[in-house]
TrEMBL record:
This is Endoribonuclease YbeY isoform X2. Pfam families: YbeY. Keywords: Endonuclease, Hydrolase, Metal-binding, Nuclease, Zinc. Its cofactor is Zn(2+). Belongs to the endoribonuclease YbeY family. It comes from Odocoileus virginianus (White-tailed deer).
Amino acid sequence: MSLALRNLQRAVPLRRALLRQRLQAVRGALGVQAFDLGVVCVDNRKIQQMNRVYREQDTPTDVLSFPFHENLKAGEIPQPNFPDDYNLGDIFLGVEFILQQCKEDEDYYDILTMYQKEKQVLQELNKHMGTRLQPLSRGLF
């Protein structure tokens, strides 16, 4: 099925083709490539507005997700009964907030922990996808 990727912000330069490629790889590794998924990149102002409306938190955030299927447990893949139910929902990425977090408040141990998790996830992706993805923080430690 399809991956709808929209960039509704201008605060952070974004390479959509590269992001689309990585999202498709993750969908494949998770076994959900048969489902539609919407990913929307927004700035701080928009993600804060959405966070205020949907979570009653008046601050920007990194991600907001709106699942199509209710009552799923974490990691559970939906079992659709109808073709129109092959939809995962929408994910809004606060790309400006994410970039700011990457530059501020970086604790060495938090980064190191994330680096180890990133390596584990990428190893699994590489095994399933036949790719050679490397952590973005490679060479820092």
